[in-house]
Amino acid sequence: MSGIPSPDLSDRTPVHRHHVDGFGEVRLVPVDPDADLDLLYAWVTEERAKFWGMNGYTREEVHETYTFLDGLTTHHAFLAVLGGRPAALFQTYEPEADPLGECYDVQPGDHGVHLLIGPAQGGQPVRHFSSTLIVALIDYILTDPGRRRIVVEPDARNERAIERLRRVGFVLGPEIDKPEKRARLAFLERADAEAAVKAFSHR
């Protein structure tokens, strides 16, 4: 969408790199709440991001949210970078240290994620763009052998996101009620996550 900032992040030091044949290298860089505020505010308050739950936030509230996350050891925020430009916002968390942990039976090795695909930057649509980004992020999660299962909880009304997860291999669980939304749990066991990374990296 025009007007959405798309800064060059090629000089940021990544915490992870993942190459996909025919797609390129996806780099994960930690969010900088100060330097990335314009981008974060534009992305999370767009109408298209209504299921992210931050529509109506002010710049100050967005900054406070990501500054708070930046100070936690259990929650982390990253930008997925493709071709030097931000392509997605990616957040990870430990369910037992998150309100989600009160909504389902947390298992040892569970690791939670949130994903917001960024707006299109122009050009021709890329086949499997969203799925490939998701798999690149899964590859990062798998770098820790203690992570045995990936947990997601998209808004139950977000049919597009749920279908993306199913295509990658997530198994849908029950719907749950959280204070801010009715969510649909979905799970990806480590063995299935490893198979997804292999399959989507060599398409």
UniProtKB/TrEMBL annotation:
Q: What is this protein called?
A: Lysine N-acyltransferase MbtK
Q: Which SMART domains does this UniProt record tie to the protein? A: AlcB
Q: Which organism is it from?
A: Streptomyces koyangensis
Which residue intervals define the domain Acyltransferase MbtK/IucB-like conserved in the entry?
29-77
- Pathway, per Swiss-Prot/TrEMBL? Siderophore biosynthesis; mycobactin biosynthesis
| Pfam families, sorted | Acetyltransf_8
| Protein's job | Acyltransferase required for the direct transfer of medium- to long-chain fatty acyl moieties from a carrier protein (MbtL) on to the epsilon-amino group of lysine residue in the mycobactin core.
The cross-references to InterPro entries, in alphabetical order and at most eight, read: Acyl_CoA_acyltransferase, Acyltransferase_MbtK/IucB-like
